[in-house]
Amino acid sequence: MALTTLEKNRNAVNFFWQKKIRNAREISQRTGILLRSCERYVELLKKTEKVIFSDETTIQMFCNTLSAWSRDAKPIASMVKHPFKIHVWGAISVKGKIGMHMFIENLDRNLYRQILNEHLYDNANAMHDRRKEWDDLDNNVIVNCINSMRSRIEACIDAKGGHIKY
Hints:
Layout: H1 3-8, H2 24-45, E1 52-60, E2 85-93, E3 96-103, H3 109-125, H4 132-136, H5 139-158
Antiparallel strand pairs: 1-2, 2-3
Helix pairs in contact: 2-5
């Protein structure tokens, strides 16, 4: 069976890709590092009621990162040199949604501080109207994600840094 055929149909034939690990020593090193990290996070998880999680991501239109092979030298689809991008910042806590902000500028330290000042601090204590998708996000999903960290880390410790079901 060709490699490309296997890659295309790997789920149908119950094959799953895993990174090749060279030897038992490498496995031992990786699991040891993961185990030590999980043990450090156990103490941090006891404080999750006081923690705010925030992150940002970029959504890009016409993000064509796939290659196409052709005998004809003409491109199959024209590529936009500078596609439209929108950045989204959001914050959550164990008590639910805190804030969300969309922007098109490049994120630097000044813009990040502005976002925190305008969208985090006030919203952490007060609930305001949110965009529809943000409103529809069930707080139980957020709470369960944050609360599941304890069982994930405990499972990692029980597995001595090895593979866990999560």
